[in-house]
Design a protein that fits this description.
Length: about 280
């Protein structure tokens, strides 16, 4: 089983000291395993620990207590740092903070170039990565002229060019309009389906989380729920009590059931709700 795991978190805690010298925990005793090739969404309110958890997965942060094995390598072993970061690529919330070059193709080349990839292979990687995210025709463009969704796809291409085994995305659509969010989510799913990449996707949009294989719910630094979207999102009351939104379809279905409409308990998408109402009528 261990050989098939991308991440193995063992009682992970992360302590910090605030401005007044008081100690707190951003993560507290988190234990979980993420198999290779799984698409995992992590949700939680601000301050729940979801972004802190994400930064531990490629050792931007190191656990204060416990251990994380990434592809079998402990994050506490400094000799594994480079190998871990080459396997786990990170995409952050603001695409502008990830753009480092004045031309799209140069930006995508930045990561693999720093890995020492030979020039001929570098060109191939850049071309393939841009084609994969549908941005090859923009390779000579200035990144600042692109839309938010396009910039984020360039950022994803830059990670892909390093040929990671996993991509961790920390609220990648938070600053985008609905069209940009749709572009990025579709791109990530295509990468997952086409290449079998492990995807860890942090989001506060429930309509994005509902498309994952598995949903992790964080609250005050602890992992409080873990299951498929169909396991998690029908728990409308529990999620709302934790300060979270739920998919609109799940909430509407809950309200209709309360009003006496005999709808299935596991409705979580608009399509499922519409289909159930049509059958009911």
């Amino acid at each position: 089983m261990t050989d098939s795991l991308m991440f193995d978190l063992r009682a992970v805690s992360h302590a910090y000291t605030d401005e007044e010298g008081r100690q707190g925990y951003a993560l507290r005793d988190v234990t979980l395993q993420i198999p290779r090739g799984q698409f995992v969404a992590i949700i939680g309110t601000n301050g729940s620990g979801k972004s802190t958890l994400a930064k531990h997965l490629n050792v931007l942060l190191e656990p204060t207590e416990g251990d994380i094995l990434v592809d079998g390598m402990s994050v506490h072993d400094a000799s594994h740092l480079w190998d871990i970061r080459s396997r786990v690529g990170m995409v952050f919330q603001n695409p502008d903070n990830q753009i480092v070059a004045a031309v799209v193709e140069e930006d995508v080349a930045f990561g693999p170039e720093n890995l020492g990839v030979p020039r001929e292979e570098l060109r191939e990687r850049v071309t393939q990565a841009l084609a994969t995210v549908g941005m090859e025709s923009y390779r000579k463009h200035a990144p600042h002229m692109l839309s938010g969704g396009q910039k984020q796809r360039v950022a994803i291409a830059g990670v892909l060019a390093m040929q990671p085994e996993c991509i961790v995305l920390d609220e990648p659509t938070a600053m985008l309009d609905p069209r940009g969010r749709e572009e990025v989510l579709r791109t990530v799913h295509e990468l997952h389906d086409r290449f079998g990449l492990t995807v860890v996707y942090i989001t506060h949009f429930m309509e994005e989380a509902v498309t994952a294989d598995r949903v992790l719910v964080m609250h005050r630094g602890r992992l409080i729920m873990d299951g498929t979207p169909r396991d998690i999102f029908p728990q409308v009351e529990a999620l709302k009590e934790g300060g979270l939104d739920v998919p609109v379809a799940a909430e509407v279905a809950r309200d209709l059931r309360r009003a006496g409409v005999p709808l299935p308990e596991d409705i979580i998408t608009n399509e499922e709700l519409a289909d159930a109402l049509c059958r009911f009528n």
